[in-house]
Amino acid sequence: MPAPPKKSDKPGQYSMARKLLLLLAILVIATVASMTWPQADSRTQVPTGLVLLLPHADARQHTITQAWLDAAHEEGLPISTMTDDEFIRLQASGQPMAGVILPDTVHPNASDLLVNTLYQFVEGGGQLMVNFDAALFQLHHKHYAADESRLSTLVGVRYALYSHLQDDTLHSGPVFASREGERQLAIQPGKLDFEDDAPDSWGELTTYAYDHLVYDHFRTAPWWAAAAPGLLRTRDARADPPAPTHVPLGAGSGSLRTWVKSEQGDVIVSSHAHGQGQVLFANLPLGYLKTRTDSYLLHRMLSFFGTHMAHLPRLAATPNATGGMVLNLHVDSSFAQKPLDDLEKSGWFDNGPYSIHVTAGPHAHHEGDRLGLNIPQNPWMQAFLKRQHDKGHEVGNHGGWTHNVFGNEADEHNRSRFEPYLVRNHDSIRDAIGQEPVVYSAPMGNQPTWATQWLHERGFKAFYTTADTGLGATRSYISGQPSPYSKMWNFPISNFKRIATVDELEQFGLEEDEIRDFIVALFAHVSEEHLVRLFYFHPATTPQYFKTMKALQEQAQLLQIQKVFRWYRMAELSDFMNRRATVKWQVHDQQDQRQLQARSQDTLDSMTWLIPTRSAKDLRITQGQGRIERQEHHWLVSAGPGQTLGVAWTHQAPGERP
Ligand SMILES: [Zn+2]
Q1: Domain boundary among 543, 570, 597
Q2: What mean pLDDT, rounded, does the chain reach?
Q3: How far is the CA of 577 from the centre of ligand 1 (A)?
Q4: What's the confidence (pLDDT) of residue 47?
Q5: Which of 238, 287, 605, 627 is least surrounded, with the fewest CB atoms within 10 Å of its CB?
Q6: What's the 439 CA to ligand 1 centre distance in angstroms?
Q7: Is residue 593 part of a domain?
Q8: What are all long-range contacts of 336-344, with beta carbons under 8 Å and residues at least 24 apart?
Q9: First to last CA, the chain
Q10: Segment holding 579, helix H or strand E
Q11: pLDDT at 212
């Protein structure tokens, strides 16, 4: 029984008013951050990794900074923060840096000296990621520093054309990725809605339960737009776009590649070669969006930047970097019992393990309807759950005791009424399987803050979520703030365009073949990209979707034979992610030799680093136990038991573009 997600925030919304509030927030933060970056004189000590550039040390405490760092850590990339002053100083001393990021929202101000240093950095071969409003304002002022972004020539796109466009400087609308964008950024099946199979078609970025994701972005023009008046349609026909002022004309436009664009053709995501280096541009407030439950593009772009542009190793978010799926069954009414029986008799539960979540009360839609599974009085279901538990499937809570009553009526203010629903549900499942459930999914996606707190107090390890669709295990931000329950991992649904599972097909006029193809493609994607994603469905509807049920298992078996896929339970992956979060690791360069050093208080067993084959050769383990395997695009370096691992290789940054 799916329902639109109850999100406190609409994804993709961003207002200038909010931005100003955020700016003010930066100014009033008084805490002094502890910076770990060494001084310029200790050159050999400086680790190689991504650098998140901040205007000053206080910005380290900002929620948006935290969102960027969290996303990088979840993607397994080495990252540290650096202030503008430190960056300028280290550039002057010739310190190499793998990749530099100018984040959105926290970095609107920039001195001309910083802007010039960024140009020198890229011209000398540096990899730079520029985001949205970064470096648009003068230092210490809240107005645009120039007629267009001073970084326009670096980015290869003219944007932030405030003096020309005034109120039309920003625009809102859906965004569309090209096939090349889909491939380069490794965007997963289901996220993009292509109208047809044509190789030149563009697919709209989608999420579950929204007709359109609406993103604020800057209107853009090619850098040569001044030579072609009218390219920008403006209200003021007298004002043609100004000629670029900051850097001489002639700096290449031919090397611009646009991967995501707006309906009007504004550049949303692009890569641009400039000098010896390259610039990745996101014309969206990616960090801000992560704090509003819309993380997908931030994660994809960071991963692309870190791996394909900065050529850094990444720590896989899966044990041994084996991709796979969490299959989450929502068993929420008595209509599920017969299909479960049939699935079991057909041998369907002999595969897996799956994650089976149950609503346990006697009623489902409303009190008194007797459409619930009534677990305490239902010996067949009790025995079924015990059998699946004993087989290794994960049995958890789907709320909520009375599915729709909890789903529709629980809110931030009625904990005293609805907490007993959670307790009764929990106790019934525990009594059936003889163990405390530790995984959860909210009926209709409705999870008030107190319910999350209750899960935390009860030692739950993970829950399903309709926020941050398309990500693997993550820690979703709630109302703009990081979750205070850091050990509990959230498992977002994998949206198929605007739906999340099979029983919504009819409502959207889709054929079953479409979601079957989606599943086949998604499973192939998680295998190739070494990821875990979640797909969920309601067993009550399976008799109608036999082809899908069959495809799920057949595709899994096919990939399992190739040893590139496995089924995951939420709890084991949550344990893995917590263990992964304790791993401290760094990369250091000495001439062409690159060293990766990892250590943990816990065992490093099954932690796996992916190192791009294009830039690494002669890999060897220098400390601890590990296994090296060469695949097509990556070396896989898996740690054995032990608390330390050292790996060394010869690093050669490839000259050609990604
Ligand atoms: Zn449900």
Answers
A1: 570
A2: 89
A3: 26
A4: 85
A5: 238
A6: 14
A7: yes
A8: 336/373, 336/538, 336/539, 336/540, 337/373, 337/380, 337/381, 339/539, 339/540, 339/541, 339/542, 339/543, 340/384, 340/539, 341/380, 341/384, 342/542, 342/543, 343/539, 343/542, 343/549, 344/384, 344/387
A9: 43
A10: helix 570-581
A11: 94
Distances (CA, A) of 323 to 126, 318, 533, 618: 32, 7, 9, 26
Claim to verify: residue 295 and residue 334 sit in the same structural domain? no
pLDDT value for 22: 39
Q: Detail the DSSP E strand segments found in 8-118.
A: 50-54, 79-83, 99-102
- Is 333 strand, coil or helix? coil
The residue written with tokens 């049939």 in the block is 342
Q: How far is the CA of 82 from the centre of ligand 1 (A)?
A: 45
Q: How far is the CA of 461 from the centre of ligand 1 (A)?
A: 20
Domain shared by 335 and 308, yes or no: no
Domain identity same for 463 and 521: yes
| Residue ranges making up the domain that contains 407 | 325-570
Query: What pLDDT shows up at residue 225?
Result: 56
Whether residue 656 is contained in a domain is answered as no
Residues of the chain with pLDDT under 70: 1-45, 222-254, 655-658
CA of 6 to the centre of ligand 1 (A): 14
Ligand 1 centroid to 330 CA: how many Å?
5
Distance separating alpha carbons of residues 213 and 205, to the nearest angstrom: 7
* Ligand 1 centroid distance, CA of 371 (Å): 13
CA of 367 to the centre of ligand 1 (A): 16
Q: 549 alpha carbon to ligand 1 midpoint, in Å? A: 18
- Same domain? For 270 and 361 the reply is no
User: Ligand 1: distance of its center to the CA of 445 in Å?
Assistant: 8
pLDDT in tens, 120-147: 999 999 999 999 999 999 998 888 999 9
Question: Residue 5 has what pLDDT?
Answer: 39
Enclosing H/E stretch for 130: strand 127-131
